[in-house]
Protein: Oxidoreductase, short chain dehydrogenase reductase family
Amino acid sequence: MKRAIVFGATGGIGQSICGELAANGWSLYIHYSHNQEKADLLAEKLTKQYPMQDFLTIKLDFLVSNQDLESFCFSLLPINAAIFAQGITHFGFFGEQELDNFDQEMKVNLLTPLKLTKLLEPILLRYDHSRLIYLGSVYGGQGSPLESAYSASKAALSRFCQSYAREVASSHLTVNCLAPGAVDTAMNSIFSEETLNEVKEEIPAGRLAKGDDISYWVANLLRPESDYLTGQTIYISGGWLV
Structure:
């Protein structure tokens, strides 16, 4: 069986992950929080390209109650991989942030993924070569000014992967974190072209990452041959901030 759920599937990286996995024979749950139209269009496109596979859209707000999370997981068909590609940030000085911003970032980036992991564990442990992959950030290794809470959430995610991987390694469930650097997605569209060019000059590879640069590694981690790689944070940064 090859069925995965991609959380945050409508984002720039999430869409690339869905395309890469579909091309590798995976059926997918295409998760969205608010943008149903984009999720439906992605599912329709992939169904036309790969008619022998299933592409199901599924909604979940990462700020819902524990009971809603339990109901969500109970409704799923069997899966043997979960990829957490969702994430939010509130750019600005820490002292000027609203307190609700901290709650949202921690829930979306860290707490709800951990809760979903706990709920999905019994499903994933039924199958060989099961996988958990989280999208961290280069800022989880080196904190970013003006994104302090975001950096904290991503750093915690890496440490969780390291710890939890050791608990389930003997069950052949691998747990890894992919930590991109600056990626050409909507999250970075708030910055001016001048600012982005300055960032590019700091990156040894000379460019921002594309979604495909990240999805390539997701696909490789899902291969059965990757069974021995677990508990790692893999930085995909073009040599930036490492």
Summary: Strands lie at 3-7, 27-32, 55-59, 81-84, 130-135, 173-180, 233-236. The chain has one domain: 3-236. Residues 99-124 form the longest helix (26 residues). The chain has seven helices and seven strands.
